[in-house]
Specification:
single chain; two-stranded antiparallel sheet; mainly alpha
């Protein structure tokens, strides 16, 4: 069976939706920290990598699947908190360029530590392999992880939207993302808002780590690095200054990557990154502020 308008198989369409959902979660995680700190965290992929290693080694230790997932969340949240206390807070008063370079340094530090500790060949996470098996849905075989990823991504995005729109803490985070200095003058507690944003971002990184590890069980020191670069491009394409456009940008580039990856022949898959980033350049030339950023700006005279 195929999807008529693209002549793609339904499994490929489901995989593209799944990748779009995962990239949307990554875009939200990156956007939360950017909203309160105006900082693009280039070490986000290494948080996902650390969570993937936790899952891989928990399976080698004979832990149950739920134990590996809990360890993944514990490791990623601990690293996120340490990054906030040791890097973000001491440099908060410095220029964005200084903080940006610091996240680069943290990213390569974590990658080097993983390479020294676990080697370059990688480790296989075997405990969550059953999620890679196919489901027979109406005569179509679709991997379980594709369906589960779509459901989890939708659930997390809805839950996060409710948090941001229906709670006082979410209101403070939204106010801080619009104008951090003014919101502090109006009584928003800066440290509380930043810590919550970092923790939420880390929790989303842990969710992504679980889903990516199921899809790609071989965990290496550069695990999720390429995905992070693609998501950053998607966030810029969507509109970095607003959470919803950034999320839509992450989903769009993930879905497009999945569709193109399924449509291209195997011997031409090496052209996929070139096609994706050529499309990114084209979009930015047409809409420099982002494909989904329709907010109006007031010109100063």
């Amino acid at each position: 069976m195929t999807v008529a308008f693209l002549n793609l198989s339904w499994p490929t369409f489901a995989e593209a939706l799944s990748l779009g959902g995962i990239y949307a979660l990554m875009a939200v995680g990156i956007g939360l920290v950017f909203g309160v700190l105006r900082l693009v965290n280039f070490a986000y992929g290494q948080l996902i990598m650390a969570g993937a290693y936790a899952i891989a080694y928990s399976s080698q230790w004979g832990w149950p699947t739920w134990g590996g997932i809990m360890l993944c969340f514990a490791v990623v949240l601990a690293l996120s908190t340490a990054m906030d206390w040791l890097v973000f807070r001491p440099l908060r008063g410095h220029s964005p360029a200084v903080m940006l370079v610091a996240t680069f340094a943290v990213a390569f530090l974590l990658q080097s530590i993983a390479m020294l500790a676990f080697g370059q060949l990688g480790t296989v996470a075997s405990s969550i392999g059953p999620l890679n098996q196919p489901w027979d849905i109406g005569g179509v075989l679709i991997r379980k992880i594709a369906v589960v990823s779509i459901a989890i991504a939708a659930f997390c995005l809805v839950l996060l939207q409710l948090l941001l729109t229906r709670t006082s803490v979410g209101l403070h985070m939204r106010a801080a993302s619009m104008d951090f200095r003014t919101s502090r003058m109006l009584g928003v507690r800066a440290n509380r808002v930043i810590s919550l944003a970092v923790l939420l971002s880390g929790a989303l990184a842990a969710v992504v780590a679980v889903m990516l590890t199921v899809q790609s069980p071989l965990v290496t020191p550069d695990f999720a690095l390429r995905d992070t670069i693609v998501v950053l491009a998607g966030v810029v394409v969507g509109g970095l200054n607003r959470p919803i456009p950034a999320t839509l940008g992450g989903f769009t580039i993930g879905f497009a990557t999945g569709v193109l990856g399924g449509a291209l022949p195997t011997n031409q898959s090496q052209y996929l990154p070139a096609l994706v980033f050529a499309a990114v350049i084209l979009v930015l030339l047409v809409r420099p502020r982002g494909l989904f950023d329709f907010s109006k700006t007031v010109e100063r005279v």
